[in-house]
Amino acid sequence: MEQQKKAHTLVKKEYLLPFVLVTSLFFMWGFARAILDVLNKHFQEAMDISLAHSAMIQVMFYLGYFIMAIPAGLFIARNGYRKGVVFGLLLFGIGSLLFIPGEYYMSFNFFLFSLFVIACGLVFLETAANPYMTELGDRETAASRLNLAQSFNGLGCACAPLLVGMMLFSEGQEANLSFPYMVMGIVVLVVALIFSRVNLPEIVHQKDDVQEAATGSKKGIWSHKLFVFGVLTLFCYEIAEISINSFFINYVVDDGWMNALDAAKLLSIAGLGLFMCGRFAGSWIMRYVRAEKFLLICAIGTVVSTALVVMNLGMVSFVSLILIYLFEAIMFPTIFAISLRGLGDYTKRASSYLMMTPIGGAVGPLMMGYVGDMTSMSFSFIVPLISYAVVLLYALKVVRIR
User: How far, in Å, are 67, 95, 108, 234 from residue 104 at the CA level?
Assistant: First the structure.
């Protein structure tokens, strides 16, 4: 008798409200992270600092991810997803409001501390929300579901440079850096209050065949080679993504294409706009195309596009820079979802290790800023090129073993 194929559910009906609520968090941290790309250029001009020095913004921000990822995972494993979200929102809101005294003293170090506190809050949100999303439907649609949620992260990323860039780079207007952070802090604290009142159901992770050996003994988390490779790959992806975002405005301005304000608009509308569209489209495509195969196609696209930027071919390089955002859009959620497969009870702990990988966002801009100071902005794209090559190797690996 021919077996009927079962239709895979993107989101189970009983989890529809939690899906909507948690998806809103993706927008919020996307907005917070994308502001950094504008702050880099603003601080270079307002405080007369070098490319490498301004990269300390990313260093301190993503250092928060590295330091707090494991504590966040332990906290969520003990107290559950909802309390992890609420605690993360409180830190996020407090860090945002710290920009008010930071602007009063106009201290670069105080701004860095505020960003560190925000990052500590965001790592709680991401450590809870990313694995939570993978469990709200069938396993086969986990990557598609996480990409759909991450699409709203892309929407936040697209809005931030446009809105904040207009505040900081508009001619004839005095920059008010604390205002967007003050508004964001108030909104975040209101959302924290909402999450403290709603019932966010906990997910009971099912045992998986690969979690237990034939003898019945559990395999350690680091014995899952695909997970270990996934940690390395996400680290390299973060190096590439954050490096490009950090110096996008510098590349466009230094090559004489446009001024800083127009470059910020371009980053928001064209670059991060494509990034958002890529995630929405990727979520739909992966309902029909294997996530592993689609990841491979996108990895090839990023490697080719970044190589063209390094070659400094004028308009060809400029267009290639924009296309990178389209090709990289599905990478983080797809690699994240694939890396968590088969981990069962280890899922929360594994998520905390995966959320340490944004430390690449601290390493990458430093390396790219140094190479840019020593050579040129075009050649500094060699840093993300090497990183995308690692993603390509991972994609080849997962396609072969599926």
Answer: 28, 15, 11, 37
